[in-house]
Automatic annotation (TrEMBL):
Membrane-spanning intervals of the chain: 209-231
Originating species: Fibrella forsythiae
Keyword annotations from UniProtKB, A to Z: Membrane, Transmembrane, Transmembrane helix
Name of the protein: DUF937 domain-containing protein
Superkingdom of origin: Bacteria
InterPro entries membership: DUF937
Length: 232
C-alpha cells in the first residue's frame, strides 16, 4: 500500500483479469476497460472527498473500524468466481449506500453512460471496486495502526494523482461525489468598498456646505455686476 490506493487497485485489474471479467459480464472488452479506467479514480476520489471534512472523516473512519474485513481471497479468485464476485459487489454497494444513500445510483448511472456498458454490469463493477477499496483501507489502517488524524494526512497525499486520472467529462457530472477540483487555484474575493471614516465624512460635509454658500454668492455677485452694467 506504499504506492497508494489507486496504484493498488490498478494492479488488481490486470489485462488477463479484465478479459475474464468481460466474459463473465457478457460485455465487450473496450467498454469494460473504459468503465474501470473511470471507476477506479472516481471511487477513490469519492472516498477522499468524504474524508476532506471532519464529519466525513469521522463517519468513514468509524465505518471502517467497526466493520470486520472480508474473507482474505486472492483478487483473481474473487473476480473469477461468480459467487465471490457477487458477494463483493453487494458489500461494496452497501458501503456506498451507507455513505451516499440513493445518490449511489447516480454514480452507477454516470459510469454506465460514460463507458456504454449496461447498468447491471455497472452495478457489479462499482460494487467490486468499492469492496476492494474498502479492503485496502482496512489493511492501511491495520498495518500502520493509524489514528484518525494520521490516516487523514495519509489520504491527502492521494488527492492529486486521483484527479489527474479522472476523465474530465465524468468528473464534471460527479461534482456532488468528488467535490471541486483541488488543483484549481482559489480566486481571491475582491474586498467590498469600505465605508468612509468619520474624518472623511466630516470633510465631505464641510465641502458640501461650502458649495451651498459659495455658489449662491457667486450668482449674486454676477447678478449685481450685470445690473450695474445696465444702469451705467
Amino acid at each position: 500500500m506504499t504506492n497508494g490506493l489507486l496504484v493498488y487497485l490498478r494492479s488488481v485489474f490486470t489485462p488477463s483479469t479484465v478479459s475474464r471479467l468481460t466474459l463473465a459480464l457478457n460485455e465487450k472488452a473496450a467498454p469494460v476497460q473504459k468503465a474501470l479506467d473511470s471507476l477506479l479514480p472516481a471511487v477513490v476520489g469519492g472516498v477522499l472527498y468524504q474524508a476532506s471534512s471532519p464529519e466525513g472523516t469521522a463517519a468513514l473512519y468509524q465505518l471502517l473500524t467497526t466493520t470486520p474485513p472480508g474473507e482474505a481471497l486472492p483478487a483473481s479468485q474473487l473476480l473469477d468466481t461468480d459467487a465471490y464476485r457477487q458477494q463483493a459487489a453487494d458489500l461494496g454497494i452497501d458501503l456506498l449506500w451507507q455513505l451516499y444513500g440513493p445518490q449511489t445510483y447516480q454514480l452507477i448511472g454516470a459510469v454506465a453512460q460514460h463507458s456504454r456498458i449496461n447498468v447491471g454490469s455497472a452495478i457489479t463493477l462499482t460494487g467490486v471496486v468499492t469492496w476492494l477499496l474498502r479492503e485496502a483501507l482496512h489493511r492501511q489502517l491495520a498495518d500502520h495502526s493509524l489514528a484518525q488524524a494520521h490516516w487523514t494526512i495519509r489520504l491527502e497525499d492521494e488527492v492529486e494523482p486521483v484527479w489527474r486520472a479522472l476523465p474530465p467529462d465524468l468528473a464534471g457530472s460527479l461534482g456532488w461525489f468528488l467535490g471541486p477540483d483541488p488543483r484549481e487555484p482559489v480566486r481571491p474575493v475582491a474586498p467590498l468598498a469600505s465605508e468612509p471614516t468619520g474624518e472623511a465624512v466630516t470633510g465631505l460635509s464641510w465641502l458640501r456646505w461650502s458649495l451651498y454658500l459659495v455658489v449662491p454668492l457667486l450668482l449674486l455677485l454676477l447678478f449685481l455686476g450685470l445690473l450695474r452694467a445696465l444702469i451705467g
